[in-house]
Structure formats: structure tokens, C-alpha cells
Amino acid sequence: MDEAAKGETTEPALLRRARRGDETAFEALYHGHARAIHALAFRLTGDAAAAEDIVQDTFLRMFGFLSGLREDTPLRPWLKRVAANLAIDRLRRGRHHADDDALLHALDDGPSPATVAEADGLLRRLPPVARTLVWLHEMEGWSHEELAHRFGRSPSWSKSILSRSLSRLRGHLEPGTGNERS
């Protein structure tokens, strides 16, 4: 390969090179997006090891789907969608949301801010499914219909969990809302 082609570092050029089997191009794509994908996966799962697995699986899927990726479309949204779907699959396999009553109870009667380590952050106070719904809806822009479809539930299920989750988060932020426990 000539030096001019190896010097191309734009995302479309890297995709073209990766399709031709250029390992350094694939590596450059990985290094350009891995941290953001890991951050999303960690936010959704709350588990560093699971997040690392999701990053690896996401890039393996990208590698297997290189020919289908469009050069004129940014890669990161596709990677984020794959990573979010992998995180949801983990939650579904783990049956973290099998008992809706338990999930709703956890949202209503979860630990108070005083008993949760501040380093874990506000979202970590939510059960995994609730945390995932909040992040994907509020930060990634997924609709209730998309969430419901992906979780195999109804849009009203998504709306209910999201509403309770946001209410709980507001309660943690607003002093004197009655969420304090002794």
C-alpha cells in the first residue's frame, strides 16, 4: 500500500482500509471509539467487566459488518446502538427485569442517598433496567416504542419505569422531598 493511502486518517478512509484488511486502520477505528463505547456500556450495566465485554463484542460485530457500513455516515452512532443492544441483551439474559413488581418496588423503596456511596453516582442508585431505560431515553434519544420493542415489553411499561426512575432521581436531588430514610 502506498504511503499516501496509509496516511489517510479520516473515518471514511479508515473504513475503506479496514475493509481491505488493513489491521492498523481497524486499530485506529477501535482506538477512536472504544472509550466512548465503554463509557456507554458502563453507564448501562454498572459493571466494568461487562462493559469491557460489550466493547469487544461491539467491535467484533463491526469487523464482521465492515462491508455493510456506509462511509458517508458517522460510525459512532452505529457502534453506540450495537453496544446498547448488547447491554440490553445482557439484562434480558440475566432476567434483571423478570419481576416488574420487584423492579417497581426497588424504585419506590430503594436505598436513600445517604446509604449509597457518592462515588457511584446518581444513576447507579437505580436498578440496572431502570438505569438503562433512563440513559437510553434521556441521553441517547431512544423512543418508548424502541425501548419497549427491544425489551419485549409495551411502551407503557417503558413510560412507567422511566417516570418512576426520574421521580426517584429528582427526589435524590431535591432536599426535603421525603426520600430521606433514618
TrEMBL record:
Organism of this sequence: Pseudoxanthomonas kaohsiungensis
InterPro entries documented for this protein: RNA_pol_sigma-70-like, RNA_pol_sigma-70_dom, RNA_pol_sigma70_r2, RNA_pol_sigma70_r4_t2, RNA_pol_sigma_r2, RNA_pol_sigma_r3/r4-like, WH-like_DNA-bd_sf
Segments forming domain RNA polymerase sigma-70 region: 29-95
Keywords tagged on the record: DNA-binding, Sigma factor, Transcription, Transcription regulation
Similarity comment text for this entry: Belongs to the sigma-70 factor family. ECF subfamily.
Pfam families from the UniProt entry: Sigma70_r2, Sigma70_r4_2
Top-rank taxon: Bacteria
Stated name of the protein: RNA polymerase sigma factor
The RNA polymerase sigma factor 70 region 4 type domain, residue ranges: 121-169
